[in-house]
Amino acid sequence: MFFRVDEDPLKVPTVSRKSERLVSLTIALLATKRFLTKNEIFDSIEGYEGEADAKERMFERDKEDLRNLGITIEVGSFDPLFEDEAGYRIRADDYQLEISDLTPTQLGLLSLASTAWQDSVLDGTSLSALVKLKSLGVESDLDGIPKISPRLVAVDPNVARIIDAVSHRQVISFTYIQEDLKEQIRAIEPYGTGTKNGHWYVAGRDLDKNDIRVFRLDRILGEISYQGKNLSYSIPAEFRMQSLLQSKAKIEKATLEIRRGKAHTLLARAENIVDHDEWIRITLSYSEVDELVRDVLWHLDDVKVLEPQIVRERVIQALDELIVRHG
Predict the structure, then answer these.
(1) Residue 227 is part of which domain span?
(2) Same structural domain for residues 237 and 263?
(3) Which letter does DSSP use for residue 93 in this model?
(4) Higher-confidence residue: 260 or 276?
(5) Cβ of 81: how many Cβ atoms within 10 Å?
(6) From CA 163, how far away is CA 186, in angstroms rounded?
(7) Which residue has better confidence, 179 or 151?
(8) Is the distance from CB of 87 to CB of 35 less than 8 angstroms?
(9) In 190-260, which residue ranges form alpha helices assigned H by DSSP?
(10) Of the candidates 194, 217, 248, which is a domain's last residue?
(11) Model's pTM, two decimal places?
(12) Burial 211-224, CB ≥16 within 10 A → b, else e
């Protein structure tokens, strides 16, 4: 099985080391502009360990696993006129999947794979592979990598506790990371929970603010706590979680510089373009800082964030963590 899913449906799906390696291998072979040799693959992708023979066997099993998943790996060389070392790549044109005949269960599993694929970028595993390839002089075309859709909204472990608190009308408290990255203890009477743009939210009356507030669950540190007795409050009859999430969307502006000929997905979103020699300066709209940070990181050093400051800081923080973890 490519992805290992916990039996408890309310737990966040986990990805095995082999699955991480297969995802990284697929991304590297899709992104490369030329054939990659085995040594380049072994040097850039985490998980290929041990003696040369062990790496060879691991790579052969990985290629077979990818073929079984319908992913065609092309074998070639740098110069067809000479018998140099064989290399490997995946053509984006060959990386296609027909989803019209999939059952709901199969589509759900595909969505799970898509989420793990996207999350691996911020996890640093696949991004580290592309950074190492670049250090070896191998250029990548990240815009050429196809994206899988639809995206599954992974269930946060706190969702079950929030649903329990809402049903029992019980106050909850938690440590929350604010926009300025500072931590603060918050206590609310939870009214409901829901998803928007791939994120889980909880809404309710903030006891300190005495007003309805919305919180993103992935900014809650650790497990939420219950406070007080059951049936300690009532949910207003007019409360609608989905309406609140729709009205919550706050559109911000960001200014980026994009290397000419790169990051076409960001360039397509531009609302204003100023053309320079090597770099193109654009302005675009966004509603979620984390989503914009993920999009920027995907394009490595082909994108620079000029403003706002919070996005710059998040990108720098993510890159620093990548360096610490992967060197």
Answers:
(1) 159-248
(2) no
(3) G
(4) 260
(5) 6
(6) 18
(7) 179
(8) yes
(9) 241-248
(10) 248
(11) 0.41
(12) eeebbbbebbeeeb
